[in-house]
Amino acid sequence: MIALVAGATRGTGRGIAVELGAAGATVYCTGRTTRERRSEMDRPETIEETAELVTKAGGTGIPVRVDHLDPAQVKALVERIDREQGRLDVLVNDVWGGDKLWSWNTPVWEQDLEKGLRMLSLGVHTHLITSHHALPLLIRNKGGLVVEVTDGTWDFNAPRYRENLYYDLVKMSVNRLAFSQAHELRPHGGTAVALTPGFLRSEAMLENFGVTEENWRDGAKREPSFAVSETPAYAGRAVAALATDPDRARWSGKSVDSGTLAKEYGFTDVDGSRPDVWRFIADTDGGKQPNPDDYR
Question: Which range marks the domain in which residue 165 is found?
Answer without folding.
Answer: 2-295
